[in-house]
Specification:
It is built from ten helices and seven strands. The protein is α/β, with parallel strands linked by helices. Strands 3-2-1-4-6-5-7 form a seven-stranded mixed β-sheet, with helices on both faces.
Length: 331
């Protein structure tokens, strides 16, 4: 028997304002970023649930990222709403555009999944469960990357190491950092800001932790791959891009920690140089520490600007949603 959830509405996140903590209807939008996915999209759409306990309305939203095949036609035939970006802008842009469109359409909960049917759609009720009961703002599907049968041994190691690094960066135990199978509360989704043009998975985790959002993980199942990954063109390229995203995001959301971390590393380098009588090492540490101090002011300024941008974005989404909604009768 499927697990049933008692759903409560938070006044900040509800589509139409009601008294806080009163039972209300919940609208779920399942978004699927797509770029030339005509071969797998029909299967993905057919597997999605149309009814979930605790959810009163479900919409399927396909974000067409400039597809040049029959993706849009297949999406419409499968009962999805198609939001076209008008050209190919990449996964990160398609993901964020989908979140905004879902929120403007009145979503209380947003699920993101892949068009290649990688994730088992039957796990969506479990994925949104912690959001429905108010226990989490962001929920990630955990593929158990150390034992994922469809990963190569090298990819398992990379995923495990990457998740460990994200755990250090976020202060949250992250078992599967790159899972794209995610559920967002309305409040969390409205504050997602992705600056990378490559991917959204790592950056959004660091941001969510920095904003003190409640992050949860639930075990999920996966399906056999239908095509090679478009992000991992080579292991070296993937590691290089991912490392850059982690370092930039951590510095942007944690400027003070970044300064203290660099000071610790460079001080250790200077001490090692003095202990081994290597003057060049000491001088290099001093130079880099000076650069870190000089760069702290603009970094902190950027940090504050990003936080203001996040709140402005959340406010503008609520205004756009309100403009499309008919106010509820007070009677």
């Amino acid at each position: 028997m499927p697990r049933r959830f008692t759903v409560e509405c938070d006044a900040r996140d509800a589509k139409v304002r009601r008294t806080a903590r009163k039972p209300c209807s919940v609208k779920l939008i399942i978004q699927i970023p797509c770029f030339n996915e005509e071969h797998s999209l029909a299967t993905t759409l057919a597997a999605l649930p149309r009814q979930i306990p605790g959810v009163s309305e479900i919409e399927i939203l396909v974000i067409d990222d400039g597809s040049e095949d029959g993706t849009a036609e297949i999406a419409r035939a499968g009962g999805a709403i198609v939001h076209s970006l008008g050209g190919h802008r990449g996964l990160a842009a398609a993901f964020t555009a989908g979140l905004r469109e879902a929120l403007v359409r009145g979503a209380d909960v947003v699920v993101n999944t892949d068009a290649d049917n990688q994730y088992e759609a039957a796990d969506i009720p479990a994925l949104i469960g912690p959001v429905l009961v108010g226990q989490a703002d962001l929920v990630l599907g955990d593929r158990d990357v150390a034992r994922e049968e469809f990963f190569s041994p090298a990819k398992r190691i990379l995923q495990k190491v990457g998740s460990g690094v994200l755990s250090l960066a976020t202060g949250v135990k992250v078992p599967d950092a790159t899972s794209g199978f995610r559920a967002f509360s309305r409040g969390a989704a409205s504050r997602v800001l992705v600056l990378s043009k490559y991917s959204y998975t790592l950056e959004t985790l660091i941001q969510a932790a920095a904003l003190k959002q409640r992050i949860a993980f639930v075990p999920i199942r996966t399906n056999p791959p239908t095509r090679p990954s478009r992000l991992m063109r080579s292991q070296f390229d993937y590691v290089r891009r991912s490392a850059a995203i982690i370092l930039r995001s951590f510095a942007l959301y944690h400027p003070v920690k970044s300064l203290l971390t660099s000071a610790g590393v460079l001080s250790s380098m200077a001490i090692a140089g003095m202990a081994t009588d290597i003057d060049e090492m000491v001088m290099l540490a001093a130079i880099f520490q000076s650069l870190a101090l000089v760069g702290f002011a603009p970094l902190y300024k950027a940090h504050r600007a990003v936080l203001r941008r996040v709140e402005r974005q959340a406010g503008s989404i609520e205004q756009a949603t309100t403009a499309q909604c008919v106010p509820a009768s007070s009677g």
